[in-house]
Amino acid sequence: MKEKTLTWLEQVLSQARETNKIPLLFLHHKVLAHNEKVQQGFVLNNASNVLDLVATYQVPVAFSGHIHLQDITKSPTLPKFYEITTSAFSIAESHIAHVTLQPDQLNYEVENFDPRPYFTAAQRKKPDLNDYPNYLVQRYEAVGASMAENTLYRIGIKDEALIQSAKEMVGSANLRYFTGHNSLTTEEQAAIQTDPGYQFLQETSTRLARQVEQSLNDPNTPNNQSLTLELP
């Protein structure tokens, strides 16, 4: 963030304090690292300067984008500060978010949005757009499956049954990761972790096993679909 923008931001936050208003921060790049995959190039280089202002002026939440996945992250150093990313229309489930403000509370809730009623007649004739929600689900599963297939082929795995199992597992993981459904129950996690396909990935590809692992449980904020904050 440019120095002049930081100066402007501090002026606005100061005005909010003077007028007894609670500031909410909106920006494109992030001020918090949401996970190990989206840090360099996704988090502001001088995020610490922004977080200093967040702490000084008691900003409760930031709404940001750029990473195109559904995620809510709590700051590890500022216990009352959260950053929320709502995934893009081009991501499975096409999320939109509802933010409801009350004098002492903020509520954030994700809604799965179906854009098809807004398509033109010509657009609806295209198979992908006519079945857009399912197309996106299949697309994100396919991206993960392709990643698994290419990785295993590169390391010399030829067993088609094992490759197919890995494709299905990583495909489902990729979908959960981007849609924010990465907080499974203990039973659901155990079912995946004891699956022979997962054990195969642990033995053959640390990268793919980690991809699945990240989609099972979000240790920071288990619920990435909704948040209720008590405002200062």
Secondary structure blueprint with pairings:
Blueprint: H1 3-18, E1 25-26, H2 47-56, E2 61-64, E3 71-74, E4 82-85, E5 95-102, E6 105-112, H3 121-124, H4 127-130, H5 132-154, H6 160-179, H7 186-193, H8 196-204, H9 206-214, E7 226-230
Parallel strand pairs: 1-2, 2-4
Antiparallel strand pairs: 3-4, 5-6, 6-7
Pfam family, one: CNP_C_terminal
Domain Cyclic nucleotide phosphodiesterase C-terminal: 117-218
Keywords: Hydrolase, Metal-binding
Task: Describe it.
This protein folds into two domains: 3-116 and 220-230, Metallo-dependent phosphatases (Purple Acid Phosphatase, chain A, domain 2, 4-Layer Sandwich), CATH 3.60.21; 121-214, no CATH class. The strands form two sheets. A four-stranded mixed beta sheet has the order 1-2-4-3, with no helix packed on it. Strands 5-6-7 form a three-stranded antiparallel beta sheet, with no helix packed on it. Helix 6 runs parallel beside helix 9 (206-214) and helix 8 crosses helix 9. The chain has helices spanning 3-18, 47-56, 121-124, 127-130, 132-154, 160-179, 186-193, 196-204, 206-214, and strands spanning 25-26, 61-64, 71-74, 82-85, 95-102, 105-112, 226-230. With 232 residues, it is of the alpha/beta class. The longest helix is centred in the middle third of the chain and has 23 residues, at 132-154.
